[in-house]
Amino acid sequence: MPPFVLVDGSYFLFRAFHALPPLTTSTGLQTNAIRGAISAIQKLMRRTQPTHMAVIFDTPEPTFRHELSPIYKGDRPSMPDELAQQIPYLHALIKALGIPLYMLPGAEADDIIGTLAKHAEKEGHQVLISTGDKDMAQLVNEKVTLEDSFKDKPMDIQGVFDKFGVWPNQIIDYLTLMGDASDGIMGVPGIGAKTAAKLLTEYGSIGGILENVDQIKGKVGQSIKDNVDGIAIDHQLASIVCDLDLGLTWDD
C-alpha cells in the first residue's frame, strides 16, 4: 500500500538553501531554497505515490523545551535574511500544489510529525517520514519508516540499530546520555555515542542504568551519579510529543 508521507519542511528548507548555489529573480529575491525544496517534494510525491501527504514546518515561537532549558537550541545561528525571505513563497507554493501544510505556534515540527504519524498508524497506514533529523528515529516501528529524501536512504527498525547501535525505543535514552550539541542537549559528560550504546545494550534503558549505576565503575559511573537531574531534563528535551491537540479531523 502506498505510504502516508510526512515531510519535515524545515529540514527541506535548510538543506536546499545550503546545497544549492544562490539563485535570484530579477527583483533580487533569492530562490534556491524554494526551488530545491519544491523539487525534492515533487520527486518524493512521484516516487512514493502517497495516499496522504503533509509538509510540516517549525515556527519561531519558543516551546516548552525552551522553558525547561534556557540553552535549548541556543547555539544555533540566526536565520540568514536570504533564507527567511523565501519562506512565505515556499509555503504559498506548497499550498498551491494542494499539499496540506502544518505549523503550530509553541510546537516543533518534530512534535507535529510525531502526532500525525501516531494518528496515521491508528488508521492503519504505513507512514514514511522524510527528514534528516536523527531525533525522528525514536518514531520508527513496524509501520513508520524514515527517509532522507536528499540521500534516498530509508531507515526501518533494523536500519536504526545498524546506524546507532540501539533500537528505536532506546533513541530517546541514547540522545539523553550522549547529548546533542545542535539542540543544546548537554548529555552526561564523558559519555559519547559508543558508550551510550554500550550502556543501553547492557542495561536496556536509562531506568536500568540508574538502578545499576553502582555497578558502572570509573568516571562514567560517577558522571551519571552527578548528573541525575540533568538526565531527567534532557530526557524531556529529547522526547517527541505525539499527542498534540492539532484541532484537526482525519478528513483535514
Automatic annotation (TrEMBL):
**Which SMART domains does the record match to this protein?**
53EXOc (SM00475), HhH2 (SM00279)
Molecular-function GO terms, alphabetical? 5'-3' exonuclease activity; 5'-flap endonuclease activity; DNA binding
Domain 5'-3' exonuclease stretches: 1-252
Entry superkingdom: Bacteria
Keyword rRNA-binding: yes or no?
no
One GO biological process term? DNA replication, Okazaki fragment processing
Keyword set, alphabetical order: DNA-binding, Exonuclease, Hydrolase, Nuclease
Q: Which Pfam families match?
A: 5_3_exonuc, 5_3_exonuc_N
Q: Which residues form a coiled coil?
A: none
Asked if Hydrolase is a keyword of the record, the answer is: yes
Can you say what this protein is called? DNA polymerase I
- Species assigned in the record: Acinetobacter ursingii
